[in-house]
Design a protein that fits this description.
Elements: E1 3-16, E2 19-32, E3 36-40, H1 47-54, E4 62-67, E5 70-71, H2 77-87, E6 88-91, H3 103-113, H4 119-129, H5 145-157, E7 163-167, H6 175-192, E8 195-199, H7 203-207, E9 211-216, E10 219-225
Parallel strand pairs: 3-8, 3-9, 6-7, 7-8
Antiparallel strand pairs: 1-2, 1-4, 4-5, 9-10
Bound molecules: adenosine-5'-diphosphate and magnesium ion (MG).
Amino acid sequence: MSNILKVHQVSKTYQSAGRTLTVLDKISFSVEKGSTLALVGPSGSGKTTLLGLCAGLDSASTGSVELADIALENLTEDKRALVRNQHVGFIFQNFQLLPTLTALENVMVPMELRGAKHTKNMAMELLDKVGLADRSHHYPVQLSGGEQQRVSLARAFSNQPSILFADEPTGNLDAETSIKIEQLLFDLNREAGTTLILVTHNPELAAKTGRIIRMKGGALISDTAHESSAVNWND
Ligand SMILES: Nc1ncnc2c1ncn2[C@@H]1O[C@H](COP(=O)(O)OP(=O)(O)O)[C@@H](O)[C@H]1O
Ligand SMILES: [Mg+2]
């Protein structure tokens, strides 16, 4: 089996008030193409930071990240953006839609960046898939949280990513809406073979993935192919 993501001895530090803050400490793991994985751990343990490094949104202080056989550490920000656009979908807890663009336009952005044709039709298809065809001309502020997250999902799918990162994708949504979003994520994994890496505080959601990595204080403390969900990660 091939690995779509290889993280080797990655650390992330910040300088603050003359001191060095270590947010991630020599993290190593690999992720098999087409698999699903949940990253769990208490608030502040470094989950969002790690996701950002894996997705090429940010760069590590030391260590290496290889995404789809591309080493990210020596790339310029422009090159990293290109890799992201070609391989990565990202879903943020707070949606991060562009407020001045409609739902349709938000979904079209990554396609246009890629120079794709027929972007409008493709974006409409994606909005239809997430059940928002009738909301295509609405602005984010006119949509509920769940609807905004569905738009952000359609946007994340729009470049047919080989790997999708979702940072607490249902953290701000009610139970019913959360289930719909989760289904869409796992559908994408099943139907398109998209590798799915998600951060969640929800044990039930984590238990639906094939593997759970637990973090604490910037380090990996366990990594289990999922069978039983004997986890208690909020301590
Ligand atoms: N830009 C930054 N500068 C300084 N510290 C940061 C920065 N970004 C994150 N941190 C710190 O890194 C730690 C991990 O943050 P984060 O990755 O957001 O954790 P999690 O997602 O697990 O809650 C926290 O202590 C946070 O304050
Ligand atoms: Mg976080």
